Amino acid sequence: MQRVFQAKEMDWLPWSLLLFSLTCGTGAFYVPGVAPINFHQNDPVEIKAVKLTSSRTQLPYEYYSLPFCQPNKITYKAENLGEVLRGDRIVNTPFQVLMNSEKKCEVLCGQSNKPVTLTVEQSRLVAERISEDYYVHLIADNLPVATRLELYSNRDGDDKKKEKDVQFEHGYRLGFTDVNKIYLHNHLSFILYYHREDLEEDREHTYRVVRFEVIPQSIRLEDLKADEKSSCTLPEGTNSSPQEIDPTKENQLYFTYSVHWEESDIKWASRWDTYLTMSDVQIHWFSIINSVVVVFFLSGILSMIIIRTLRKDIANYNKEDDIEDTMEESGWKLVHGDVFRPPQYPMILSSLLGSGIQLFCMILIVIFVAMLGMLSPSSRGALMTTACFLFMFMGVFGGFSAGRLYRTLKGHRWKKGAFCTATLYPGVVFGICFVLNCFIWGKHSSGAVPFPTMVALLCMWFGISLPLVYLGYYFGFRKQPYDNPVRTNQIPRQIPEQRWYMNRFVGILMAGILPFGAMFIELFFIFSAIWENQFYYLFGFLFLVFIILVVSCSQISIVMVYFQLCAEDYRWWWRNFLVSGGSAFYVLVYAIFYFVNKLDIVEFIPSLLYFGYTALMVLSFWLLTGTIGFYAAYMFVRKIYAAVKID
């Protein structure tokens, strides 16, 4: 799946043009140093299996969890952290594919007089996976296999007027059901496209794989004619019947495949464009324009407050005469002696804000690097690996900001505060993931994080992140605390009774709607990438939306804290942190809507996984937006109280 700016109207145009150029080039960009593989005529092109996936169960399985034909020696590819966390288990297969060499039909395993026999248990497992809509994912030269879908936009009776819209589905369906019968796709027609490289006349041509398609077919045993050389003959036309899998008995069948090569004009650098082409890019621009309108709307409100109301307030407050009358007109100066009073639980607040800074730095760098094409889908698992390592190393910034804020809030136990910062949010994430992982282990899914990987993650947490947080916290705590412009009174001021719309939950609903409205369209594509096994690659759009989210969260936070101080309620620290993250509540509501309307999940464990990981996303998003809003409000409060004369 993956979609910038101060509210000066004239500044938008050059930035938009720059990011448009970056956005357009994202799909076909490769990491420097990743060289293409050149094949000669009849060189072997290895077909590897990645995993089986289903959007109905959200549980990936490795390829050989089903009784597919196996090579003489099974070899698993060494995987990076991101691939392991995604559930990828890349393994070799017995398919024999040679560059630019056709194969009409070949038996994959078994002999002409001895087809593959599936036991009752194996048949039941295959039938269960087919009924759960599982897809098989293969790769050739790191290109994922795709199934071509031809859609006709014109439904008139005249075939000549029908416009064909070609789309691609990732992987191929394991099988299909029809009238309560289950059928297996046991014949695969591979269509590979190559680009011939231009060379000098006396040198041999080299080829590069630029597309990998498959047409899965179901052909019953009786209709496939195989000889002793493992060759076979496909039935002509539509005379054949599909290969049924009866889960109550043994089933005999052939696994067969054919290979067809076609020359293509697509160059190697652009070969991923086929998989990443989207027909609805316009909706992303609609989303950006919608977000810009939201930001301008907020900027208008903010300008009205700052330019008119706030300047008038400050001018009145700074008049030496008639101070009492002016103080009765507006309330925010009345709480000057309490506005910087430290809140309850300052250690927890500073720890959460430190984790928010850690998340903010990590997300900003990941999206920016991905926007430049460094984390394209061709680098399998690179996005998640980069995010994990960056979060660990950003601990020094999170610790520094938490330590300085904790000292500003009159905290003294810096060691305990540093430990709290390093373990509170990561501990919740690790705990939820561990519980979910136990359920995935019980299902024997490849999505379960192996025990050695879990130990490695714990070592990264306590060996990299924890020391860096302590280091940052130490220097942050030693640094001069934030300079508050007014002194705090010894006796707290009594807070008047607040109106109903100043309720905290009402504030969350009001503050969250606009930032969420600026990003909800992009959220749909992110959810599709996560839960429906789609590629997300429009990181240029995501970077734009992220910057707009930062601006809108900052602006709405300033508006909310201004109204709260005018109501003479100085307890803004925790309230502003909670209210600024109000868009996370709408993300939760949207996630429930997406689950009910877009996904076909009915079982308990897939539902538990969905809502468990959604809870982590909502928590992280609340920390991120709450931190952005808190620091914007803190800067605003310090500015306005520094601008008035206090006796």
Characterise this structure.
This protein has 647 residues and is of the alpha+beta class. 47% of the residues lie in helices and 14% in strands. The chain contains 16 helices and 17 strands. Strands 1, 2, 5, 6 and 9 form a five-stranded antiparallel beta sheet that branches. Strands 3-17-12-13 form a four-stranded mixed beta sheet, with no helix packed on it. It has a two-stranded antiparallel ribbon with strand order 4-16. The chain is elongated, with a radius of gyration of 30 Å. It comes from Ovis aries (Sheep). This is Transmembrane 9 superfamily member 4.
Strand content: 5-15%
State the total count of DSSP E strands: 17
Rounded radius of gyration (Å):
30 Å
Structural class by helix and strand composition? alpha+beta
Please state the average pLDDT score. Answer: 81
How many DSSP H or I helices? 16
Q: What is the first-to-last residue Cα distance?
A: 57 Å
Please give the largest β-sheet: 5 strands, antiparallel
Please give the share of residues in helix: 40-55%
What sort of overall outline do the alpha carbons produce when their principal axes are compared?
elongated
Which consecutive residue ranges, at least 5 long each, have pLDDT under 50? 1-33, 325-329
Protein name: Transmembrane 9 superfamily member 4
Organism: Ovis aries (Sheep)
Chart the SSEs and their pairings.
Blueprint: H1 12-24, E1 47-53, H2 81-86, E2 91-92, E3 103-109, E4 116-118, H3 120-131, E5 135-140, E6 143-144, E7 146-152, E8 164-170, E9 172-173, E10 175-178, E11 181-184, E12 187-197, E13 206-217, E14 225-226, E15 232-233, E16 251-253, E17 255-263, H4 273-276, H5 281-317, H6 323-329, H7 346-371, H8 382-393, H9 395-408, H10 414-442, H11 451-478, H12 504-531, H13 539-566, H14 573-580, H15 583-597, H16 604-642
Parallel strand pairs: 12-17
Antiparallel strand pairs: 1-2, 1-5, 3-17, 4-16, 5-6, 5-9, 7-8, 10-11, 12-13, 14-15
Helix pairs in contact: 1-13, 5-12, 5-13, 7-8, 7-9, 7-10, 7-13, 7-16, 8-11, 9-10, 9-11, 10-11, 10-16, 12-13, 12-14, 12-15, 13-16, 14-16, 15-16
